[in-house]
């Protein structure tokens, strides 16, 4: 299964990605996670990406496309993959089409997670992430059993530096301007499926499976 998860910041892409990759046994390719890992490790790529991410702006297309192209060539992507947070511009989507064409491959579905913009800031600001295993929680909607501690691995939970109200607001604006045109782009290619992201996390996942044509 070759899938893209599309949706604004805080829509629940990362949350649903965890379920999808387990069910379909495919690798999770999150460009945001790749950049955060590079920032943590102090690489050149991380240094280039950091300022853009802290401001809630997009990292330049040329940097992103190269990374994804390299990743998709890996052996574990042959049978399928889940792209999360990529593509984010029409330029990136066109570049992805060319990469897949070169590989003799094609997308199956683009899952568009729809959430009212008014809910997104609260979702992102309340998010907490496990330092050790990357599991995502929400202080109100999906709290861990013990505050600040991951249920799965007992790791410490932290808040992303771009999850403050001002930066999230800018990320939503950037999404509307630069990324939302991809909804039409993939609709025209008859790849798009729309999912209501304002339901319980499990119900959103059920709807994704139904839309893909598979049950658990
Ligand atoms: P990235 O890491 O991709 O972040 P994002 O797209 O802004 O998305 P988020 O991770 O904020 O949200 P999500 O939809 O995954 O929500 P989650 O599941 O965590 O990008 C970060 C930055 O990197 C960008 O700003 C940019 O600078 C750069 N970047 C990355 N890719 C790029 C690219 N391709 N090109 C250029 N730049 C790029 O859920 C959010 C919260 O809500 C959680 O707390 C969760 O528990 C809760 N929640 C989830 N589902 C539900 C539900 N159904 N009900 C209630 N609460 C829920
Ligand atoms: Zn953990």
TrEMBL record:
Binding site for AMP: 31, 36, 57-59, 85-88, 92, 160, 171
Localization in the cell: Cytoplasm
Keywords assigned by UniProt, alphabetized: ATP-binding, Cytoplasm, Kinase, Metal-binding, Nucleotide biosynthesis, Nucleotide-binding, Transferase, Zinc
High-level lineage: Bacteria, Bacillati, Bacillota, Clostridia, Peptostreptococcales
Name of this protein: Adenylate kinase
A Gene Ontology molecular function term of the record: AMP kinase activity
Organism: Acidaminobacter hydrogenoformans DSM 2784
EC number: 2.7.4.3
Pathway assigned to this chain's UniProt record: Purine metabolism; AMP biosynthesis via salvage pathway; AMP from ADP: step 1/1
Quaternary context: Monomer.
Residues engaged in binding Zn(2+): 130, 133, 150, 153
Pfam families cross-referenced by the UniProt entry: ADK (PF00406), ADK_lid (PF05191)
